[in-house]
Design a protein that fits this description.
The protein folds into 2 domains: 13-163, 2,3-Dihydroxybiphenyl 1,2-Dioxygenase, domain 1; 176-372, 2,3-Dihydroxybiphenyl 1,2-Dioxygenase, domain 1. The protein contains 10 helices and 17 strands. The chain has helices at residues 31-40, 82-90, 104-113, 191-202, 249-257, 272-281, 292-295, 297-301, 308-314, 358-372, and strands at 20-27, 45-50, 59-66, 69-76, 93-101, 118-127, 130-138, 144-153, 162-163, 178-185, 205-210, 221-228, 235-242, 261-268, 317-321, 324-330, 341-348. It has a 9-stranded mixed beta sheet. Strands 11-12-13-10-14-17-16-15 form an 8-stranded mixed beta sheet. The protein is globular, with a radius of gyration of 20 Å. The protein binds fe (ii) ion (FE2). The site of fe (ii) ion has 6 residues, from strand 10 and strand 14. Residues 181, 183, 264, 266, 343, 353 line the site of fe (ii) ion.
């Protein structure tokens, strides 16, 4: 591993200040059922709705929320739409990673001047709650970054959406708080291209690099670089496949997604044991590492606040870096194709991504791939 750049965030050329992740929009084949899944399984709450009742003719979106995380689930209402074609090619997946900015027109113009491809020019939308300006650029694959300027808006989500209230479906809170990072899978040889895109077009900085010696098992390998924006709130690891004896998880993703796209969304919690216990009781399926992982864990990471027994019971992984440690676990894919999944992460000082878990984790993924016949 190449060492993290000291004072990493100061190194970012922060000509494009980003305040945080605004929302993530998934194109899915059944938005109503997907919304129910994220509420019942992941503990989100109903927030907003747009569709026939709000004057849309061709699509429907449900917005669910948990603390700072907003997911928009969008489906077409008829054949022949761009959304329908996206779903036909990629299956359910992330279309938009929206970034919260002070000035969506400035962000757009800056990105375009610096080489970004336009998705949509700045559009101002208004309703009785005020005004939102949005603009959009393409990133890897067909994935889009929307810039969202909402300083003059106090509505539930965006103009055009109405309140969507359903009975609270949370017997006990799950505790998902914010998006910690989102990972993109890109084609062989394209990782540096997209790292360069984030550096040049958006002012991000490459804070960590993993080569195929860091991320390999007996059979498969991948490479990864992590880019971060200036304030460290937005972190995007970018993976590309590497040469191995068998097909890596990134190859499998690219085959099934039929292109580059978002591989996982990592969400932060302050109490991973409670969060994972809740998610499991609601039917969320997680990857398992062999039980022997826990025999060696204390030797590897030293003393931690948590007992090992519940970590072992729930399959939660631990890793340490110079600044502290982190706890993490990965779900199985949440759609029919083996593409996107979620990570649950609790950071206790560590700013890294769990390098010490890569091998055990990727061997667990290989076992799943073998079951699917895609290894
Ligand atoms: Fe991750």
């Amino acid at each position: 591993m190449i060492e993290a750049i000291p004072k990493i965030y100061e190194a970012a050329k922060d000509f494009m200040p980003l305040l945080g992740t605004d929302y993530v929009e998934l194109y899915v084949s059944n938005s109503k059922q997907a919304a129910h899944f994220y509420k019942s399984a992941f503990g989100f709450q109903s927030l907003a709705y747009a569709g026939l009742e709000t004057g849309l003719k061709d699509r429907e979106s449900y917005v669910v929320v948990q603390d700072k995380i907003r997911l928009v689930l969008t489906s077409p209402l008829k054949s022949g739409t761009a959304i329908g074609r996206h779903i036909d090619q990629h299956g359910d997946g992330v279309k938009v990673v929206a970034l919260w900015v002070d000035d969506a027109t400035y962000a757009y113009r800056t990105a375009i001047e610096r080489g970004a491809k336009s998705f949509c020019e700045p559009v101002s939308e208004e309703d009785e709650h005020g005004k939102v300006v949005r603009s959009g650029i393409y990133t890897y694959g067909e994935t889009v970054h929307m810039f969202v300027e909402r300083k003059a808006y106090d509505g539930p989500f965006l103009p055009g959406f109405k309140d969507w209230k359903t009975p609270d479906f949370n017997p006990s809170p799950i505790g998902l708080k914010y998006i910690d990072h989102m990972v993109g899978n890109v084609e062989l040889g394209k990782m540096d291209h997209w790292v360069n895109f984030y550096e040049e077009v958006m002012g991000f900085v490459n804070i960590l690099t993993f080569d195929d010696n860091d991320i390999s098992t007996e059979y498969t390998a991948l490479m990864s670089k992590v880019v971060s924006n200036g304030n460290g709130r937005i972190k995007f690891p970018i993976n590309e496949p590497a040469e191995g004896l068998k097909r890596s998880q990134v190859d499998e993703y690219l085959d099934f997604y039929e292109g580059e796209g978002v591989q996982h969304i990592a969400v932060a919690t302050d109490d991973i044991i409670s969060t994972v216990r809740q998610l499991r009781s609601r039917g969320v399926e997680f990857l398992r590492v062999p039980d022997t992982y826990y025999d060696a864990v204390t030797d590897r990471v030293g003393e931690i606040d948590e007992d090992i027994a519940p970590l072992r019971e729930l399959g939660i992984l631990v890793d340490r870096d110079d600044e502290g440690y982190l706890l993490q676990i990965f779900t199985k894919p949440v759609e029919p194709r083996p593409t996107m999944f979620f990570e649950i992460i609790q950071r206790k000082g560590a700013h890294s991504f769990g390098k010490g878990n890569f091998k055990a984790l990727f061997e667990a993924i290989e076992r799943e791939q073998a079951l699917r016949g895609t290894l």
